[in-house]
Amino acid sequence: MGRLLLRIQPSSRTGHVSRYILNRGERMVDSRKIIRVFLASPGDLSDERASAKIVVDEFNAIYGEAFRCHVDLIGWEDTVSRYGRPQKIINQDVERCEYFIGMMWKHWGSPPDRDGKYTSGFEEEFELALRTRAKSGKPEISLLFKHVDQSLALDPGESLKRVIGFREKIVAEKQLYFEGFNNLRDFETKMRRCISSYVLNLLNLESTKIAEETKNAAEPDEVASTQQAILPMEGMAFLRNLIDGDRGTNEDGSASPLEVARFRLLGEILGKSGNDDKSLGVHDANILFAGKLDVEFSQMELDGLVSCGLRNVHYENVPLWHWLKLVTQYRANELAISTLVGPPEARRGALTAMRLI
User: What are the structural domains of the chain?
Assistant: First the structure.
């Protein structure tokens, strides 16, 4: 009857983190994609570096399982001691990362070697990230500058002058957008947004790639019909049958409550910003749930039913869990993504649903 959960965390050089669940002698393995993020900064931002670790741990705890990913935050603190130029060893982690986040404040840092061309370890890490991105398209790069008091800016020392010069160079080149922050709380907000935005974009790219591969694998006639249709094939077939009166209508020829509800569901799919409010309500959603065995819903229709459920979950009178289970069979991170995108009431509903789960 007991259940044992083992979580094996990776080093910064492994590709996956595995979660093993042992229950009555059975073992299931949940492999997650490791997203390596390198955090670069001089030594005057130790509080921010510690806070970044907390933000990433929080993200992994809340979204890691839903997104099937694990963000591995790497910095010079994680470099294993061994023979060799210290910065060269750190650079190996820079070359392997997918996302490079740089932070600057008052200090430029110290030279990474005695006779090299770089004046600080941060400068070498940043230039390496730029070269690697130019070759392979990775890593993504973000820069965060902490606000410097005006009194210091009026009479900067040599170190701060280098920081100001670096910032002015970034502005002049117009190749990289950066953000500023004022305090630790502001930094945590910016860091949280950087991580969540990068992961969400990565998931969207992967979903688009899978959709394109599926589309390319389809027959040419099927691809053409998919491109032209504004409704899924199941919905089009339902409308044809409804018009012809061949299925499910009442004896007097009128549409049944189930058909009316599904018709409104298709209207939900076609809804556009600027049109009237969504037409699928709780009553229709319950009718569709009651008749679920008699209807073959498309994935788009299931998405519409989940959206309706999330918008109304706080009323506790709308079916949600059945549709959500079906949707997660082909998109496992549906609920977590719904907390970040979509109408505000659906995002709030997704948070409520996650708390209930």
Answer: 3-208 (3.40.50.10140), 229-356 (no CATH)
Token reading at 146: 């902490």
- Please give the radius of gyration of the chain, using alpha carbons only, rounded to the nearest integer: 26
Tell me the C-alpha distance between 304 and 235, whole Å: 12
Express each pLDDT in 312-335 by its tens digit: 888 888 888 888 888 877 666 777
What is the Cα–Cα distance from 331 to 78, expressed in whole angstroms?
34
Half-sphere exposure of 297 (CA within 13 A, CB side): 26
Q: How far apart are CA 138 and CA 99, in angstroms?
A: 7
pLDDT score, position 67: 82
How many Cα atoms occupy the beta-carbon half-sphere of 171 within 13 Å? 9
Place of tokens 């002058």: 161
Whether residue 250 is predicted with pLDDT greater than 60 in this model: the reply is: no
Q: What does the pLDDT average to over 61-70?
A: 85
* Proportion of the chain above pLDDT 70, given as a percent: 76
